[in-house]
């Protein structure tokens, strides 16, 4: 098909494909940085594998756009959109890039410990995966609506790859959090504290009886709510110094 004959339907598909392409190119950079920072072998390997997948996805998206009469454009620092005829108008990823710059690809030393830093990077990877999944859901819906089976299949395949990475990342959270606790909390403070539990349940009983009388008095006063929240905050931070005796002992 001559490029000048590219119909409007393909322009719609190219628009969404190109936005996903911008995201994938962005992640190629972010994943490379994440790999350098990752300490856990399972995470490092997962990120390395996903970088390969991401590069293949970028290529696949660019190829599909070309077949549809468009051209991949990852951002303002690359050559501008190659407009194929009047019908295809590629949407550049200026906004995508600006967002990436604002979030920062990876911040190497933002955590309070090595494990905390790694955990934060995993959390960032997770929202990136969620964003990619959203892109592929949109592309699949567009392709379904326009009866483009090939693009729908590509979107479905890539979405599943992102979901698989998302699961791998989710599995990292609990062990990483254990490592954070090990690094940041002295061993004597890691278990449950019966003293704090009983204090909390006493305050829960007390505040619950106050709330129910408030509720029965229809909505209650804001000053009481404020006092109650101050009291809760004080208990949470352990700043209450004068516990009132609940009962007289004799
Ligand atoms: Fe991806």
Q: Briefly, what is this?
A:
It is built from 7 helices and no strands.
Description:
By secondary structure, the protein is an all-alpha fold. It has one domain (8-183): Ferritin (Up-down Bundle). Helix content is 70%, strand content 0%. The protein contains seven helices and no strands. Helix 1 (8-37) packs antiparallel against helix 4. The model is unreliable at 77-102 and 207-244 (pLDDT under 50). The site of fe (ii) ion has 6 residues, from helix 1 and helix 2.
Topology:
Blueprint: H1 8-37, H2 41-67, H3 94-103, H4 114-145, H5 149-184, H6 194-216, H7 222-237
CATH superfamily: Ferritin, core subunit, four-helix bundle
Q: Which CATH architecture is right?
A: Up-down Bundle
Give the cofactors and ligands: fe (ii) ion
- Specify the biggest β-sheet: none
Q: Could you state the order of secondary-structure elements as H and E?
A: HHHHHHH
Give descriptors for this structure.
mainly alpha, single chain, Ferritin, binds fe (ii) ion, 250 residues, 70% helix, elongated
């Amino acid at each position: 098909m001559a490029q000048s004959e590219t119909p409007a339907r393909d322009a719609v598909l190219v628009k969404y494909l190109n936005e996903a392409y911008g995201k994938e190119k962005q992640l190629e950079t972010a994943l490379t940085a994440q790999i350098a920072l990752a300490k856990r072998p399972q995470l490092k390997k997962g990120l390395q594998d996903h970088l390969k997948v991401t590069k293949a996805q970028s290529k696949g998206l660019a190829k599909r756009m070309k077949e549809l009469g468009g051209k991949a454009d990852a951002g303002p620092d690359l050559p501008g959109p190659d407009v194929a005829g009047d019908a295809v108008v590629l949407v550049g990823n200026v906004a995508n890039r600006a967002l990436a710059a604002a979030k920062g690809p990876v911040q190497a030393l933002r955590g309070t410990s090595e494990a905390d830093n790694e955990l934060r990077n995993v959390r960032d990877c997770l929202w990136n995966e969620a964003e990619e999944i959203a892109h592929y859901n949109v592309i699949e819906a567009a392709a379904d609506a326009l009866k483009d089976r090939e693009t729908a299949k590509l979107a479905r395949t890539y979405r599943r790859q992102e979901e698989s990475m998302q699961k791998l990342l989710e599995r990292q959270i609990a062990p990483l959090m254990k490592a954070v606790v090990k690094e940041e909390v002295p061993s004597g403070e890691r278990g449950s504290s019966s003293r704090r539990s009983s204090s909390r349940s006493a305050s829960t009983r007390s505040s619950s009886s106050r709330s129910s009388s408030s509720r029965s008095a229809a909505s209650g006063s804001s000053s009481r709510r404020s006092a109650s929240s101050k009291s809760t905050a004080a208990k949470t931070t352990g700043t209450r110094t004068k516990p009132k005796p609940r009962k007289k002992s004799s």
